[in-house]
Amino acid sequence: MSTINALLPIIYFIGLAGLFIGGRAYNRSRSKSETAEPTSYFPPHTTKTHYTELSEMFSPETETGLKLLTTALMKRAMSDVQRAWKIRDEKPPLQGLVKQGIVGDDLWENLTTAEQELDAEIQDVMAEAELYKEGWGKAIFQEASQIASMQKQREEQMQAQQAMAEQQALEAAMQPADE
Hints:
This protein is mainly alpha-helical. The protein contains five helices and no strands. The chain folds into two domains: 37 residues; 127 residues, no CATH class. It is flat and about 95 Å long. One of its GO terms (biological process) is post-translational protein targeting to membrane, translocation.
């Protein structure tokens, strides 16, 4: 009986060590699989893809081609502005979470990579804009920012109106019917 009592703490310790080693192995394999497939901070850049496809199909030499390409480039710039806004809004809180150890460094690295990619994208859009109109490279993001701001305000107004209409409908449904 005394040998069983003496072995019990050893068996307990071996069990805990096994759980610890198994947990470490699981975390390592999980982190390797996450690094094997890097995820982008942003969804695919569909406006960039659309612009690239149009630039392969149309020439800026024609009136129709120029109009299509400049419109697609403006949409691409607007998308970039929205991405810049997202980074601007999410970077400070994310930095705080990383400093506190709540969020891993991989998410921070993802954000900084996205920021670098966005800077390169902005330079690319500016260069493309210069090809269509001289001086437009400096102004395209200002125009895109204004249009995106107006769209954002319109969407917020529509959401507020919809919420108000839903609130009114709810209040109307809650009132007792007059007989």
